[in-house]
Amino acid sequence: MNFRSNYEYKKNFYIQVVTMLLNNVFFLGYWIMFFDIFSLIDIFYVYSVVYVAFGLTQLIAGNLPNIATIIATGQLDIYLIKPRNSLLYMIMSKSSIVALGDIIYGLIALSVTLVKTSEYLFILLLYWLLLVVLVVTVIASYYIILGSLTFFIGNSKAITDTGTSALIMFATYPQVKLNPTMTLVLSTIIPSLIISIFPLQILRYSSSYYLLLLFIATAVFLLLSLVTYKQGLKRYESSNSINLNV
To answer: In angstroms, rounded to a whole number, what is the distance separating the alpha carbons of residues 104 and 18?
Structure first.
């Protein structure tokens, strides 16, 4: 239903998707200028996971960036009265079709890495699919945690926007050597390394150590997001307003 609604305006639909794709291509061009410093193939490995995962997150659960606003304005009422999981219903009631541009771009990056791989293509694809699922879970959980802060501190829309922008920015930034403090921050408060460097180590170097770390990190973020939302619901005050969910 969300897809059909967005596709109703076909020209606008294609313009948004192509614009997002071109935006990502220009961003890559910026890093190509530094090919003598950074490994381009590493960047493609990272982009193939991060952009597809981020795109799928927005496509499947397009309301993730709006959790804080929905809670702060009392719109959560219309999801709580339904006989289904309120969190899933809320985040999946909207889709961002623009995210198709990110997905297409990520698949192009994946094809580049496959060209560079002469063997074990099937195993690489299986690993890639698994990593995308795990990274989607981490990104969605991060959105839920930031959005659910509204239950405790008031409207956390600004925190959500800043936090998720930082997440994607650092995840798609070619990593150089980081000091211990930045490594800790980008692995916890802003899990950029979890969704970028961990998959890179797994795909490029078949690191079972980083695969284990990614599983643990995904479980922790998922559990933390569910607990934060559930505990926050206990503090939620209905707006007593009438909202129509169309």
So the answer is: 10
Give Cα 140 distance to the centre of its chain.
6
Alpha-carbon distance of 117 to 104, in angstroms, equals 20
Integer Cα distance of 210 and 220 in angstroms: 15
Segment 20-47, tens digit of pLDDT: 566 656 656 555 555 544 567 888 889 8
Whole-model pTM: value is 0.84
Rounded-to-integer distance, Cα 136 and Cα 153, Å: 26
Neighbours of 149 (CB within 10 A): 21
CA dihedral angle for residue 88, residue 89, residue 93, residue 95, rounded to 10 degrees = 10
Phi then psi dihedrals of residue 158, to 5 deg: -65, -40
Q: Is 154 helix (H, G, I), strand (E, B) or coil?
A: coil
Residue pair 152/224 in contact (Cβ under 8 Å)? The answer is no
Q: What is the C-alpha to C-alpha distance for residues 74 and 50, in angstroms, rounded to an integer?
A: 32
